[in-house]
Amino acid sequence: MASPETGVLAARGRALAVLRVRGAALALALLPAAVAVVLLVGGATGRLGTDGGWAVARWAVGSLTVLSLLLATLVSVVVARARPALSPSVPVTEEAAPDLYRLVRDLADRLDVPAPSAIALTPDCDSWLEDRTHRAHGPPRPARRAGRRAPEAPVLVIGSPFLWWMRVAELRALLAPVVAGTGPSAHPDIAAARRFIRGLDAAAGVAARARGPLRALPLRFVGRVARLLLRAVGDHVVLMERGVAAAASERAQGVDYGLRIVAQEQVGLAYAGWDRLLTRVALPAWRMGRWPSRLDAGVVSALTELSRRDRLAEGFASRLGERPACDLLEEPGTIDRAASLLAARLFHGGPAEPGPDWSPVAWQQYPEEIVDRKWRLEAARLHRVLDELPAAGPADPDRAAPDRTPADAPATATAPPLTYAGARARTPAAPHGQGLPRALDPTAPPPGSPLRSSRADAPAPPGTPGAGEPGADESAAPAPPAGPTLARVIDRLARDPGSGDLVAARLGAEVAREEREEAARQATRSGRDGTAAPDRGDDPVDGGLPLFPLQPPRTVRELLADHVTAMVCCAAVDTAGAAPGLDWLDGPALLVDGARRADLGRPVLSLVDDGDAEPLRGWLHRIGVRPEKPVRLA
Questions:
Q1: How does DSSP classify residue 480?
Q2: What are phi and psi of 535, to 5 degrees?
Q3: How deeply is 480 buried, as exposed, middle or buried, from its count of CB atoms within 10 A (0-12, 13-18, 19+)?
Q4: What share of the chain has pLDDT > 90, as a percent?
Q5: Residue 90 pLDDT more than 50?
Q6: Which of 245-259, 462-476, 477-491 has the highest mean pLDDT?
Q7: What distance in Å separates the CA atoms of residue 482 and residue 461, rounded to the nearest whole number?
Q8: Are 269 and 303 in contact (CB under 8 A)?
Q9: Nearest CA to 119 among 110, 129, 106, 133?
Q10: In contact, 487 and 481? CB cutoff 8 Å
């Protein structure tokens, strides 16, 4: 079996290959200077001529020497001064987590490797070592003694979901091969090769962000040289890192080997639950200018629910009686809040700091402040689109709904049944606090009802049923204004075969417009708070853009289904005593008599795709929803 030293030797060999490429590039830059020295010494000693062709050669080589030295100096300065990119993370000081630092140091002692210099958390299901020894990554360090510089240990970055889901023993077993990597990292040749690679990568990034002719032209040359050198050492770097990983894995074999297998199982489970929590629970809140402040605590509930539903995960929930790894933190709530804000910035592009339009939301407030508001915003958008449509033609009871094939039929035909609680809430809502127009039916609410609009006290137009005008010609009278009722939505989609495609297309255009306006607001906000600095190589979210966006494309037919589902949920809450709820894996959920109803997807799809309203009407009748009653919009 290979030993850790074997992997280190293999990694060192590849590191030396990287350094040889660096030496070859330096030699190529100094070659004109060497030729110039030979010509000058030869002329001074009389071994070479001093006039004629020799003089021209000296001038040509001298000019080339000056140019090559200037370019080499430019490349060297940019590579040395460029700020290597850092992974966004939440720093954890030793005062904030003394037990965690003690666990990591004990683990390093058992592995006989240097302890990491610091610990940080990242809102992702991964852990790694990161070199942050560049002078721009921290406060000025004291002057070192004469002699060769001692390499500083890298920073240990831990995925924050691991701390809340894993037990202390599992976390120690999971971190063993990661901490073991500090041993190869301390090797001088490997450390020098890594610094060279990070400098080239940072220089290429500086060149890509250069603006203006005076900066762009020289930096463009630096960028080309950096990319050329990166391609030259690419294979060696991959094999070097593979050797480092192999050496770390071999060194960690004797530490908690059995627990490492269990911990790896927990990694897969944590990743699945974390993805569902972000895309289906956090994303709807982010789009409304709110960010859940306890994401890591929520992942425990999500993974517990996943363990309950998944037969392969049976028994995992019993681990919750053991000590969680988050107990190693002095103030886990504060760390969770910081990691939750960073997750919103990375995956959605929100601001770096809370504000009036970017406020936290607790899990207890989520159903009322996020789920209910999301439904009503989408219902209001749907009615606003219906208000702008031309009037529908008369219904033909003898004609069945045609077999129409919309443009997005292939995408929706293979989609799974779309329940509101199970659908990804990817539709951006209006900004927090922004009102939307209401169109309440003046004839529907009873007197004194809070849903009664200001127009309810006005006399009904002549010819309107119930207007008190016997003998009036109803066929010549204008139709009453449509109110925000579920019946209006169902009748329009069922009566007019082509209205579904038209409503879906206009909803898509409306959502796209709101996304553009929100992007413009984020760009303006980023310019005001200074987060869009062009030369910050360590900030991957400059300009308010998400680093890992969670917005997969959707068809307009899916948008229409979501908006109809939202309208149904609003009607159920207002007329049938239902309530908004939170499902930890599926996000917004409709609760009827305290239980989640997940059977709404098929009736809605029957209406949206086929124009068949009977399944939905039957569902509404069973729940006790009155579709003719107006609903409260945003």
A1: P
A2: -105, 15
A3: middle
A4: 50
A5: yes
A6: 245-259
A7: 13
A8: yes
A9: 129
A10: no
587: phi then psi, degrees, rounded to nearest 5: 85, -135
Question: Is the Cβ–Cβ distance between 163 and 189 less than 8 Å?
Answer: no
State the DSSP string of 140-165: PPPPPPSSSPPPPPPEEEEEHHHHHH
Strands 587-592 and 595-596: antiparallel
Q: What percent of the chain is helix, strand and coil (3-state, nearest 5)?
A: 60, 5, 35
Would residue 530 be called left, alpha or beta, if left means φ above 0 and alpha means ψ between -120 and 50 degrees? left
Q: Which two tokens stand for residue 425?
A: 């809430």
What pLDDT does 425 receive? 32
Pair of tokens at residue 148? 């060769």
Closest CA to 25 of 257, 199, 220: 199
The Cα 363–Cα 367 span in angstroms is: 8
Tokens linked to 265: 């199982």
Give the angle 179-185-191 at the CA atoms, nearest 5°.
Answer: 160
Residue 319 corresponds to which amino acid?
A: R
- What is the rounded distance in angstroms from the CA atom of residue 579 to the CA atom of residue 378? 17
Give the burial string for 111-143 (b: 16+ CB within 10 Å, else e): bebbbbbbbbbbbbbebebbbbbbeeeeeeeee
- Single-letter amino acid, residue 112: D
128 to each of 125, 175, 330, how far by Cα in Å?
Answer: 11, 9, 23
Q: Which residues contact 64 (CB under 8 A, 6 or more apart)?
A: 32, 36
Q: How far apart are CA 513 and CA 508, in angstroms?
A: 9
- 379/563 Cα distance (integer angstroms): 6
What tokens were used for 124?
């992702």
SS (H, E, C) 243-293: HHHHHHHHHHHHCCHHHHHHHHHHHHHHHHHHHHHHHHHHHHHHHCCEEEC
Other Cβ atoms less than 10 A from the Cβ of 53: the count is: 8
At position 31, the amino acid (one-letter code) is L
Helix or strand (DSSP H, E) at 239: helix 213-251
pLDDT tens across 179-231, in order? 999 999 889 999 999 999 999 999 999 998 888 777 888 999 999 999 999 99
Looking at the chain, how many residues does it have?
A: 634
Angle at the Cα of 393 from the Cα atoms of 392 and 396, rounded to 5 degrees: 125
Instruction: Return d(Cα 366, Cα 361) in angstroms, integer.
Output: 7
pLDDT value, residue 260: 85
Q: Which residues contact 535 (CB under 8 A, 6 or more apart)?
A: 206, 209
- Which two structure tokens, joined as six digits, stand for 398? 């003898």
**Adjacency order of strands within the sheet including 118-122:** 90-92, 118-122, 155-159, 128-130
User: Has residue 337 got a pLDDT over 80?
Assistant: yes
> Which residue from 541, 625, 539, 535 is spatially nearest to 575, judged by alpha carbons?
625
Tokens of 571: 């009607």
What is the CB-side half-sphere exposure of residue 590 using CA atoms within 13 A?
Answer: 26
Judge residue 608's burial from the number of C-beta atoms within 10 Å of its C-beta, 0-12 exposed, 13-18 middle, 19 or more buried: buried
Q: How far apart are CA 248 and CA 176, in angstroms?
A: 9
149, 205 in Cβ contact below 8 A? no
